[in-house]
Structure formats: C-alpha cells, structure tokens
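2.7 Reproducibility. Because tokenized structures are sensitive to small changes in the input, we list the exact sequence used for Transposase (Putative), gypsy type, including any N-terminal residues retained from the expression construct. No trimming or masking was applied before prediction.
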Amino acid sequence: VAEDPESENVSSPAEVGSPGSVYALQQQVSGEETLKATFEDYKRQQDQMVEQWCAEMDARLDAMSVDFDEELYPHMLTAIAGRRWVIGHGPRLATMKCAESLEMRQAFADVVSAGIAKGMSEGLKHGVEHGHAQRTVESLEAYDLEAEAKFAAAFQSLKNLKLPLMDQLEGLKDAPIDVIMASLYLEDDTGEDAPQFIRDLRPSSSQLTIPVYPEVRDPRNPWACKEEIKLADAIAANISRAEQKKRSHIVCRTHGVGSAHHARSDRILVSAPIVVPQGLALLLVDAATHTESDDA
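Resulting structure tokens (single pass, no recycling of outputs):
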C-alpha cells in the first residue's frame, strides 16, 4: 500500500507534547524575555544619559543667562546709552568747548575783522563807481586793495586751525563714557554761578538713558520709543533679575522684544520684564523662531 508522502511531515500529538518540544519552547520564550530585559536595560541607560545631558544643558543655560544679566547686558546697555549721549550731547558740547579756545577765538575774530574790512572796501568802491566818477578808489584812505585777499587768508586759517580737543576726543574713542563726558566739561561751567543754559549742558550720568520700545512697532516710525529709563536703573534691573535666577534656579530663554520667558527646571513657565538691547533681542527672537520651525 502506497503511503501519503505528506504524512511524514505531520507530527503526531505525542511528538508535539514531548519533553523535547516543550523544552525548546521554554528556551525560545526565555530567550525573548532575556532580549526584552536587555533592551529595557539599554533603554533605561539611554534615558538616564539623556536626562543627565539635559540637566547639564539646563545648568549651562542657567549660568549663561545669569552671565548675560550680570556681564553682557550691562556692557551693551552702557554702550547704547553712551552712543545716544555722544550723538545727542557731544557735538554741541564739543563745539562750545572749541569756542573756548583762545586760538579759535582769535582766528574767528580775524575772519570777522577781515570780513568787515572787505565789506567796507566793496562799499567804497561801489559808491565811487556810481556817485563820484571823478575820483578813484585808490585815492580813498579807507579803501584796502588787499581786503578780499586778507579775508580769504583769514578764512583759510580758520579752516586749517588745529583743535587739540579733536585730537583728544579721537584718543578717547575707546575710553569709558564717563571719561569722554569729563573731557567735555566747559570752562565757563563754574558751578551754580554759571548761566542756566551752561548748567543744562553739564555732562551728567542722569543723561545716560535707555529707550524702551513697544512690543508692536509702528511701521511708520519703527524707532519710536514709548519711554526712556536711566542707565543705572536698567543695569540694576538686570542684576536684580540675575539674583532672582540664582535663588530660584531659573533657566532663561528670551522669546520676545521687551520680555523674557523663563523655563524653570520643573517646567513651570515664568514671565518677567526685561530690558534687552534691541539688536540682540531681535537676533534671539529670530533664533527662537527658527528653532521652533525645525522642531515642527
């Protein structure tokens, strides 16, 4: 009798339940459990490494934020306030201080005198030509043939006058703003006896201010500020915020102009006012926007 060839591949119930097959299944299950345990252990190690790395990054960001408030921002705010003072007060004070120079006064007086003499000579010449044709200007004692040349020479001397103050200010281009301000004190500023307009021009730290811009700029006047605060107050605010961060372990990330959003290590969001130099704030906003886009 011919047997079915496929019957050789069919195991009998006795063979399936044999000790050998049960042992094989146990080994397979045990191997899978071991592999799963190994994977879970590896995953746990990786999670711990990521958490440690994140904690280190949070600490670095926290320290960098404090350094920004304590070191970077005060220098940037001082530079901004100094530039605004130099543009707003410096030229007027420099001009008035140059006018205090004896050389400057003498050169200017020479130009005025030569100009008056030139005008008188031109008037005499005009009068002779139109009113006294029988006379010549050379016959007039008050007429100066060289009046125009003298005026041109005096004016050129004024233009070529070397002002020591200009060289002094150029040498102070990298000096602190208080040194530059001290170099522009007027000699006529004799204290309370000085005229009011002189006292108003007197360099003072209260003139160092920082503009505070609105969060939404007016496109017609984007550089219009809503108020100005003293430089000392702006720096004090940054130092105070740095001390608060040290006490509360705040990790700072700036997301907008005029405000900062701080993420605590426990993921609680805290918002606090901030005075940020506009250029740096815009760069930080742009960087944050690109980061959010990349994450999305």
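The first strand starts at residue 209 and ends at 212.
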